[in-house]
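subagent[fold] <- orchestrator: predict structure for attached chain, return tokens only, no commentary.
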Amino acid sequence: MNREFVLAQMDTVLEELKKRASARRGGTASDHEPVVEKQEYSNAVSDVEAAKGREQGRSSGATGFQARPRRRGQASASLDETCFISSDPVVSITQSALEEYFDHPDSRDHVDESAVASPRRGVETTAPVTDRSLAAGLPPSSRRVLDKFSVTDPGWVSSLVAMGISKFRNPHPFNPEPAPTHVMADQCRLVFVGDWGSGLPRAQKVAAQMRRLIEEAMTAGTECHVIHLGDVYYSGFDYEYRKRFLPYWPVKPGEENKIGSWSLNGNHDMYSGGHAYYGTLLADARFARQARSSFFRLANDHWQFIGLDTAYDDDGLKDPQATWLAETLAKNRQRAVLLTHHQFFSAYEDDPNVGKVLREKLGPLLADKAIFGAIWGHEHRCVLHSAHGGLEYARLVGNGGVPVYMTHAEGDDYPAPATFEDRRYIASGLEHWAYMGFSVVDLDGNSLRERYFDEDGLLCHGGTIVSGT
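subagent[fold] -> orchestrator:
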């Protein structure tokens, strides 16, 4: 879905919401729609109107990924045209509702699952964004697709939107108890992937390569944990976890006692109130060690990796996490690496509010050098940083599943405090699509070695950060 398409559909959704909000009765018009109260339709009207106005004024899509000019002076497609991932909760909820409609077996207008043609004739490639398209005969993106549907179809989508907004306004209760500390072996492998929950073919390739590193650890008898840094798209609907995340997670069902699975909460997970994050994802047996908590600790005699929830309060740190962390670090002197969805800082997003609450709440710990490092996602890049902001070790691993453009040439300077970014791009096609990927941290006593792999399994960077001396 591109931005123009989503905006057009919001018009029809809004019209249907107004009809239902003014109707004498609430409820649904057909069996396949969710049950929605009349007041929820009324509330949704104002939220969709406001979101539509914001979106018409300024795109809520990803910033900082402007397309590089094509050869021969051809105009480049903006990222909003090719892969629109909104940061507006209501727009994202609309995208979730539309996609669930098109995927539903009762829908009259199905998604075409056939592969998109390769950009180069005779060359087998994975589609840079998706291999799915709307069924033949639907209007182009500039038209309102829902207008051609039956009377109940706009109602179906509108009911999903109203339900999603209601969940966003009434989030799942925050669990104030951390998961029990998991004691790791001194020799252990940690696999990190951020913003992976798109279910796209290239995200599935990332999972396959993660699986290769997991099996390597299993063969060697090395303890292994896989950690998602948050975000299932578009809005963390139950449908999206079951369709896009759980089937492709690189830890297979039944392996929960062999391999650890952990997932942070991301802002997109909270766009439908975090209900499915707590009730679907963390309810899966593979994530049982997390005990349905959004913050956790993995530790051995030398290291402690501590996951924090920075999304329940968007780009914040919900209490009592700061207090719990301070108490935990006071009692445990191992090197501490924090895992968050949101950034502590950014080399590319020039906004002083990025990570502000996180830095303020953890300020005394950072000042006292109680925190060795941090690994985060949210920004759809993979960037290594020099020591900065009280962190000796700072890594952005947010390139797991969202297609973005590579906007820099390989020889361009890195903006401080960045020291490395994989600036290759997929050579097929007209646009410069950045590679997706993940990171692997191997612990062995005091030592920490990191490696960064792309979606094809290529090792693109790595080294020993802390030696075993």
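orchestrator: received. Logging for downstream: The chain has two domains: 3-169, 182-466. Residues 3-22 form the longest helix (20 residues).
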